[in-house]
Please model this.
Amino acid sequence: MPSKLDTLVPDIYKVLDKLSDGIDITPDIEPELDALVEDIREAVLHWAVPQDNSGSLRMSNVGRPDRLLWFDAKSPKEPERMPPYAHLKFLYGHILEQLVLFLVRVSGHEIQAEQETVEVDGIKGHMDAVIDGEVVDVKTASPFGFKKFKEGTLAEDDPFGYLAQLAGYEASQGTEEGGFLVINKVDGELCLFRPDDLDKPNINIRINRVKEVVQLDTPPDLCYNDVPEGKSGNMVINKSCTFCNHKHECRKDANDGEGLIMFRYHNGIKYFTHIERMPKVERVN
Model:
């Protein structure tokens, strides 16, 4: 039986299409404007307070690689200092998510349990919403990230553990047909990705696994394999490791114990784990 959720994005587009037809949509949006203003206010206040980075297990991180979670637990670090403009990126991400939920309401779909605290096997989280009876996680994404949701390939590359996060929220609600409502933050395109059950981990097994991992005396295997840098025989860390707070400690055995060696390229710093031929660019201390 078709779910009402299946028509979510088309129904939002129907409202927006009225503008293209020269129709005033004030009657559609005005009943929800007060809620939108309050939601944006709460989002801004939440953004204004630095978040917990203690390394504790949460629903938002249980799907991340085992080795990363081990270092988070055993060697918690302050995040690398972000430039001021990066905070603006997170702010408009939070605001965009509220705008998306606003459009869900305007399009006639039912929202419940917004930002509700949930718990599964002692792991807590805050889910975005239940829409039309199913858990829906709202995401903003770059064009590259958006493509994974639109084409349904998230399970092939899910470094942030989104599928485990969704599985946890669904387990708390006793549902299993939810998904991700995603907005491309560059062009505004929307998509609803509802992953197959086989793409989502068994969240109880996953939670038990990560609880065991963080108690280990030594770290698990590498999260990602190194990748070749050109054809020289040089090797660098995987792009998914680039922004990890633990990369230097994690790879301290690289380069025969010297650790990661960094070189500055036109498109950013690259972190070498093995050097056969010295790069002809500036080395970073």
